[in-house]
Design a protein that fits this description.
The protein is α/β, with parallel strands linked by helices and 329 residues long. The chain has 12 helices and 12 strands. Strands 8-7-6-9-10-11-12 form a 7-stranded parallel sheet, sandwiched between helices. Helix 8 links the parallel strand 9 and strand 10. The chain starts with a strand and ends in a 9-residue tail after the last helix. The structure holds 1,4-dihydronicotinamide adenine dinucleotide.
């Protein structure tokens, strides 16, 4: 099978090249441009394309891919809201994804953001580098004995619950489908109750119509003063303008964001100047108690290896006509 690999970053190439020798049937060609309606034609002569959460796999892209006789889209990510699944089905293009690669990687990053915000690590780091060893402005609070509110308790949310448990926190959760495996130490409550009672709120539900802007000025006003809010899920779960209003109202001890409303994938890497000049994310960066990372929650050695392995297994499953849980739609 010949696969055109779009939006190649050095770390993608490295992780796939580590796994490729186990898949001699696969020939992979790595290119830098991301997949969209203009670049889709580059897949002429290939059986499949490998794309990411940032790729634009809408109607026109799929039409071009179909003309090029591409029959498989391999998403090297969990999310597929960037794919027009109806058109893919009509054109008989299969879409396969990597639903879970390392939930612990994302959950650990969520806790890293929470701790960095709470203990002002970015400020402490800069102060000490400037030879200022004073503690002014660095006071945090113990997580031990406090309440964590986990919204969405699927794979990543569950991993976050285990981490919070290790910190000695009381854990409240909100999910439309409670996770039975957590029942010994997690209490499911209404969203309102979670917002009202939590000292740390971490978002782990997918972006859907029902969750779009679920954190807005009304929900922010229900939160405790001095709460820490962390989002490693999808940017549009939070209405950014309302978040800024909440920060101005001194609602938050800290806000840790790995995802932002304006991103399509980790766009900052390629277009940082252009985006930062105009974006509301840039406004967020101006607040001293906001810490932003560039969609790196998944970015561990283990997760990248698992993504490469599953993507290539998905390619093999397609050639063998195996359906399986990774087939989308
Ligand atoms: P999952 O599908 O295992 O869990 C999602 C959970 O959210 C499920 O338990 C589901 O019932 C729940 N949910 C659905 N609608 C809800 C609602 N309206 N309110 C509350 N809960 C609701 O997904 P997983 O693997 O845990 O991933 C969670 C999210 O993390 C993904 O949707 C993705 O946006 C994000 N993610 C971020 C990464 C990063 O690098 N920052 C990497 C991978 C995923």
């Amino acid at each position: 099978m010949k696969i055109m690999f779009y939006d190649t970053k050095p770390y993608d190439k490295e992780s796939f090249e580590r796994v490729l020798p186990s898949y001699p049937e696969v020939e992979m060609h790595f290119i830098k441009p991301d997949l969209d309606k203009r670049t889709a034609a580059l897949a002429e002569g290939f059986d499949a394309v490998c794309a990411f959460v940032s790729s634009d796999i809408g109607t026109e892209t799929l039409q071009v891919l179909s003309k090029c006789k591409v029959r498989l889209v391999l998403l090297r990510c969990a999310g597929f809201n960037n794919v027009d699944l109806d058109t893919a089905r009509e054109l008989h293009i299969e879409v396969r994804r990597v639903p879970g690669y390392s939930p612990e990687a994302v959950a650990e990053h969520a806790m890293a953001l929470a701790l960095a915000c709470n203990r002002r690590l970015y400020k402490a780091y800069n102060k000490v580098r400037e030879n200022d060893f004073s503690l002014n402005g660095l006071m945090g609070f113990n997580f031990h004995g406090k309440t964590a509110g986990i919204i969405g308790t699927g794979k990543i949310g569950a991993a976050m619950c285990h981490i919070c448990r290790g910190f000695g926190m009381k854990i409240l959760a909100y999910d439309v489908y409670p996770n039975d495996s957590l029942k010994d130490f997690v209490t499911y409550v209404s969203l309102e109750e979670l917002l009202h009672d939590s000292d740390l709120i971490s978002l782990h539900c997918p972006l859907m119509d029902s969750t779009h802007h679920m954190i807005n000025i009304e929900s922010i006003k229900q939160m405790k003063d001095g709460v820490i809010l962390v989002n490693t899920s999808r940017g549009a779960l939070i209405k950014t303008d309302d978040l800024i209003e909440g920060i101005r109202l001194h609602k938050f001890a800290g806000v840790g964001l790995d995802v932002y409303e304006e991103e399509a994938g980790n766009v900052f890497e390629d277009r940082s100047d252009e985006i930062l000049k105009t974006s509301v994310t840039a406004r967020l960066l101006s607040f001293p108690n906001v810490m932003i990372t560039s969609h790196q929650g998944f970015f561990t050695f283990e997760a990248l290896s698992a993504i490469a392995e599953t993507t290539l297994q998905n390619a093999m499953d397609c050639t063998k006509g195996v359906s399986g849980p990774n087939l989308v739609g």
